[in-house]
Specification:
The structure holds two protein chains of two kinds. Chain A is mainly alpha-helical. Helix content of chain A is 42%, strand content 1%. Chain A has a domain at 232-479. Chain A has helices at residues 5-8, 70-77, 90-99, 109-115, 130-133, 139-143, 163-170, 178-189, 199-204, 213-217, 235-264, 278-281, 318-325, 337-344, 351-375, 383-397, 410-426, 436-449, 470-479, and strands at residues 398-399, 404-405, 457-458. A two-stranded antiparallel ribbon of chain A has the order 1-2. The longest helix of chain A has 30 residues, at 235-264. In chain A, 53% of the residues are buried. By secondary structure, chain B is mainly α. In chain B, the strands form two sheets. Chain B has a two-stranded antiparallel ribbon with strand order 1-2. Classes of the chains: A mainly alpha, B mainly alpha. The interface between A and B is large, with 44 and 51 residues. β3 (457-458) of chain A pairs antiparallel with β5 of chain B.
């Protein structure tokens, strides 16, 4: 299948650009009530520019792709490096204009939160430090504000600290832990309590966000990484896919709670359309609407906007998946998700009800993520476990009893395509003859879901025919029995 | 006042049928005689193939007052006759209804689209149109060859239906015939009764532009008091988008089964002799003083606005915010592409991403109202109030997405605008639409159509272009160039070629809608602007 299929999904959704936006001035009001996994919050502390990491004897070895040259690799080819620069482009200028912002995007705190190093002084009225801004999303953005640990982390005793200690006491984000890493990515790629891409911003011209970790990790644009994964497949890809789903959903419910809370103080719009499936509405009216084909097993009522179908595609099957990768345990019950969905899929959900339910859902997902961090999972997966996973995920798309797909929303279908692709690669991909029969249906699904390539940039699945992916998912279901 | 029996006229036919023990069977449809809500009795008189060679023409000169061919037109080419048929599901011949049956009936195996009173209020003949109670299926006449029948619009009450052809009460009338000869004939006394009298007997005063426009708007826009509301759920199940109501376009496209006053000799004669009475009874003014269709374009625009405001007010009462269907469909329903016409155009102070109200609802009215201010000082007083009244509604409805939590403000603003329409209409009724005024209205609509606001909204552009065309036809302008340019971008009429078959019979929406929606989706503001520029040259 040539390059990894997963990479081909890049461009399906035009949210490759790392970007985010905060609707209101910095208001980090997160109140931690229940325990959270480490990495869930952006640590507070003194940020440093990337120069403090770039010493030749530290991370600036000057040989991109090699250990000791992490800074050099990042500077050479990491897309995060360009995060600030895009704020000067035509799209950014138009977005600011459409939103009626008083300052250009490259001086707008709400843009800088995700397009530059998160340094509070940028948006508290002090002079902008263009030198550090121009780094884009640099070392401290992901590894944590290094004020407390910069001069310590190379000392021998540092390695003896637990991840939790490094995070809690020093503000260091242990990115080797998939949960901490992906929660950290999610702050910008999904949205956080003080930063988000809401529907106002998308309508002004910002691409939608649709984070799925494996798609980003293995994208061509991110081929040259400044680190090496120590965990081999299938464990790595299964872990990151699974955590990507749980952490993505966690970030989404946390963001929803924040949006609902802010809206009650008239600080945010409500209902927030970015919570709903984009293409439920955004499709040209025609003979057939794409999102609610009657052949689906779980169709929504006519005219209802599916809530967070991108991040909640696997909400029902993730507990079973967790049971497979962590024998003896099953994923915690997500009791708040169903009522949350019911409320959010009302034409006009009640903000107060939503805020309460979304907080509960976040706490339940946090408990799950803490269990991952504490107990371990997906370690030395056996072929049987892999098969059980594939079978569960294929059955999450296709229901054999009725012969129907469970949902026809583009987001749900794309998520399942990505999940099965991740599993395909986890299982050896093209290098595994046993998976040869997967290639055709996976490729077909990707092709049918792809946005049109002709006529300029199109950011929605124009001409997508829901029934066209049916054979592919059915085939994959059969292959995974 | 002689009582006359028409030889060969309907009493004989009825008597004959009765004598033979047969129910009267009209050419087009089998019906039960004398049953309210059906057309049985109507077609006895109103299905004349030859307007002159029939008993009513000979005896009452009825053909100088009405066309007498109404039933034929309605049966053969009016989509209203198919109104019920289109909601009878059939996967092959009526896939739209089949889909709606499936989607609206999810989880309810007993669901029957053809018995859903939300549909029947507009797709059948409603025997209790003003009922505010929860509706029952028995209150509707549901027959596939009837749909929205005579009674549905003209009034379902039996009283007027017998009285308006009461041969025992006639009056004499003198007028000049085609040959210039003074003639005297009798007509039913009913004909020249005052509207209030007719209305008391149950006949709708459809000669009044406002009454007529309100009636059309009750289904073609909606009327919450009459349970006529196409909700977002119904749209999402497959109901075609309701096209903007432009009264004259709709009348012509129906196609109209009635004559305009300037086409009917009796009315012309009557108006010449009694201009004030002609206005009082028949709601028209002499053609040299008042342009009949210009008045209708204006009345239709205001009635649509009023209907939509009533919907907004009712919605606002019921929920925390408004049903999605009250907003501009295409603000959400478009494929996403870059550069986006919306983003390039900008949002004129609005927050991007918040659906606005349907632009067409206010755009033609804005033009009509501003123009009406030039008709007379009394109209100007009213027309000056409109911009602020509309801004209040728009602001309240869009201050939060779908007016979440703003129901009371929306309802208050919408009701105020409804109240304003009554004052405005009254002022306009007292003023005249001269031909010169019709021409300036035509020019103003042309200007509005070339404005950035219209270019950004396909529906509004279509609505304005329909109004333009209606007026241009009324003023006998050459439309060749117009049709050539505008036809590239928009359907020129509500019933364009796509919507009718070779014999001009209406096609079910499922047949022409996909192409029409595609044309909508492909609307290119730049290309449309270029066409408008060409036309302005």
């Amino acid at each position: 299948m040539g390059h990894r299929t997963v990479a081909l999904y890049v461009g399906l959704v035009a949210s490759v650009t790392v970007a985010a936006y905060a609707a209101q001035p910095a208001a980090t009001t997160a109140t931690t009530i229940s325990p959270q996994p480490f990495g869930a919050q952006i640590p507070k502390g003194q940020y440093s520019t990337s120069l403090s990491c770039a010493a030749a004897s530290c991370h600036g070895g000057g040989q991109p792709g090699h250990v000791g040259s992490e800074f050099s690799t990042w500077g050479d080819s990491d897309p995060h490096r360009r995060a600030f620069r895009v704020l000067y482009n035509e799209d950014s200028i138009r977005i600011s204009k459409n939103l009626g912002r008083k300052m250009p995007a490259h001086e707008d705190a709400s843009c800088l939160k995700c397009h530059a190093l998160d340094e509070p002084k940028h948006y508290t009225g002090e002079l902008l430090d263009h030198r550090s801004l121009s780094d884009g999303v640099s070392c401290d953005s992901c590894h944590g504000p290094s004020g407390k640990w910069n001069s310590l982390h190379y000392q021998s005793w540092w390695k003896g600290l637990s991840d939790r200690e490094k995070y809690d006491q020093f503000g260091f984000v242990p990115t080797k832990d998939p949960v901490a890493r992906i929660l950290n990515c999610a702050q910008c790629h999904v949205g956080g309590r003080d930063r988000e891409v809401n529907h106002d911003l998308i309508a002004a011209g910002h691409p939608r966000l649709s984070f799925e970790y494996t798609r980003y990790h293995f994208s061509e644009a991110y081929a040259n990484k400044h680190w090496e994964e120590k965990v081999p497949n299938p464990d790595f890809e299964v872990r990151t896919w699974l955590v990507g789903q749980v952490a993505g959903l966690r970030a989404a419910t946390d963001l929803l709670a924040a949006r609902a809370e802010r809206s009650q103080k008239n600080e945010a719009p409500w209902p927030e359309f970015a919570e709903s499936s984009c293409y439920a509405c955004h499709q040209n009216l025609g003979a057939e609407l794409r999102s609610h084909t009657t052949n689906a097993l779980h169709p929504r009522k006519s005219g209802v906007l599916g809530w967070q179908l991108w991040y909640a595609s696997f909400a029902k099957s993730l507990p079973a998946v967790t049971g497979i990768v962590s024998p003896g345990s099953k994923g915690p019950a997500l009791a708040a998700l169903d009522p949350l969905r019911v409320e959010m899929e009302k034409p006009l959900p009640n903000a107060a009800t939503v805020a309460g339910l979304a907080k509960q859902a976040t706490a339940q997902l946090d408990a799950w993520l803490i269990a991952f961090q504490t107990n371990g999972y997906a370690a030395k997966l056996t072929p049987e476990q892999w098969k059980a996973l594939a079978s569960t995920i294929a059955a999450s798309a296709y229901d054999n009893a009725t012969g129907k797909l469970r949902d026809y929303d583009w987001d749900v279908l794309a998520q399942h395509g990505l999940a099965l692709t991740a599993l395909y690669h986890a299982g050896g991909g093209a290098g595994n003859p046993a998976l040869a029969a997967w290639t055709a249906p996976l490729t077909e699904i990707r092709t049918k879901l792809a946005f049109p390539k002709t006529g300029g940039r199109v950011d929605s699945p124009r001409d997508f025919q829901p029934d066209s992916v049916y054979p592919g998912f059915k085939k994959l279901y059969e292959l995974t029995r | 006042m002689a009582t006359r029996t028409i030889r060969g006229g309907f009493p004989l036919r009825l008597a004959l049928a009765a004598a033979l023990g047969l129910a009267f069977v009209s050419v087009s449809s089998a019906q039960v005689p004398g049953t309210i809500g059906r057309n049985t009795n109507c077609v006895n008189c109103h299905e004349q193939k030859d307007s002159k060679d029939n008993a009513f023409a000979r005896n009452y000169r009825s053909n100088d007052f009405v066309l007498l061919s109404e039933g034929l037109t309605w049966t053969n080419s009016d989509p209203h006759s198919k109104a019920y048929a289109v909601i009878v599901p059939d996967p092959k011949t009526n896939p739209v209804a089949a889909k709606m049956q499936e989607l609206l009936g999810r989880g309810d195996k007993d669901y029957d689209l053809t018995k859903d009173t939300r549909c029947l209020t507009c797709h059948a003949t409603d025997l209790k149109p003003t009922s505010k109670e929860p509706r029952k299926v028995e209150e509707f006449v549901r027959e596939t060859n009837l749909g929205v029948s005579c009674n549905a619009c003209h009034g379902v009450t039996a009283k007027w239906q017998t009285e308006h052809v009461d041969e025992s009460v006639t009056v004499k009338y003198k007028m000049t015939d085609d040959a210039g000869k003074e003639i005297e004939f009798s007509h039913y006394k009913w004909r020249t009764e005052m509207p209030a009298y007719k209305e008391a007997a149950g006949m709708k005063n459809l000669r009044d532009p406002h009454t007529k426009a309100d009636l059309c708007a009750s289904c073609h826009v909606g009327n919450p008091d009459e349970n006529k509301v196409v909700t977002h759920e119904i749209y999402a199940a497959g109901h075609p988008p309701l096209p903007p109501l432009e009264l004259v376009t709709f009348m012509n496209g129906e196609p109209r089964h009635w004559g305009y006053p300037y086409e009917l000799k009796f009315l012309q004669d009557f108006a010449k002799k009694n201009p004030d009475k002609a206005w009082e009874i028949f709601r028209f003014k002499p053609a040299e003083k008042d342009n009949y269709l210009a008045r209708h374009v204006a009345a239709g625009a205001i009635a649509s606005l009023k209907a939509e405001m009533n919907l907004l007010a009712a919605e606002a009462k019921n929920t925390e915010g408004l049903d999605y269907a009250r907003f501009d469909c295409y603000s959400c329903h478009h494929d996403l592409k870059y550069p986006s016409a919306r983003q390039v155009r900008g949002y004129e102070g609005r927050v991007p991403g918040r659906p606005p109200l349907k632009a067409w609802v206010a755009m033609l009215p804005s033009t009509v109202v501003a123009h009406a201010g030039t008709l007379a000082p009394a109209v100007k007083v009213e027309s000056d109030k409109f911009p602020a009244a509309w801004a209040n509604v728009s602001k309240a409805a869009t201050s939060s997405p779908f007016a979440y939590g703003k129901g009371a403000e929306v309802a208050a603003a919408a009701k105020a605008l409804v109240a304003w329409t009554a004052d405005f209409n009254k002022a306009v009724d007292a003023a005249n639409y001269s031909d010169a005024a019709a021409d300036t209205l035509l020019a103003d609509i042309g200007k509005a159509l070339a404005s950035p606001a219209a270019l950004g909204d396909t529906e509004a552009a279509m609505h304005l272009s329909w109004a333009y065309r209606s007026l241009a036809v009324a003023r006998k302008k050459d439309l060749t160039k117009w049709d050539g340019e505008i036809g590239k971008h928009l359907p020129l009429e509500i019933r364009s070629k796509a919507a009718i078959d070779a014999s001009k019979t209406p096609l079910p929406a499922g047949k022409f809608l996909p192409d029409r929606l595609k044309q909508f989706a492909n609307f290119d503001p730049k290309a449309f602007a270029a066409s408008m520029a060409k036309l302005q040259e």
